[in-house]
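Example 3.2
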Amino acid sequence: MMNKFINDPDNLTAELLEGYVMAYSNQVAIGGENIIVRAHAKAEDKVAVITLGGSGHEPALSGFVGDGMLDCSVVGDIFAAPGAQRLFQALQMFKREVGILLVVLNHSGDIMSANMACQLAERTGIKVKTILTHDDISAGLD
């Protein structure tokens, strides 16, 4: 039997991220609603690396935020992609002359949010290049 401690299902994602940040405050911080950022920003002359994805499989994604890794993880609700507006907010936060690399997981919701956010970014002069990963692992059929 597995037990889970949940204060309020409506606040699950926010509380999960708050706890994560409390545990690793030397490495990560909350940069906005469901946005995890490096605790110590890197130089503006370095490309920002951002990803997005649903929560529920932590510390994946947000666990890669930190020194030498991701600058930002935009988190959706449990197994749901974050909306394009939240991702666009993160892109605005990390706008820099050298640009942003957006790592997009191969999930339809993540791809849709990324495409929409990149269109908004392009209209406002934010330089973004995307890379689509193929990270899923299938359990083979017998």
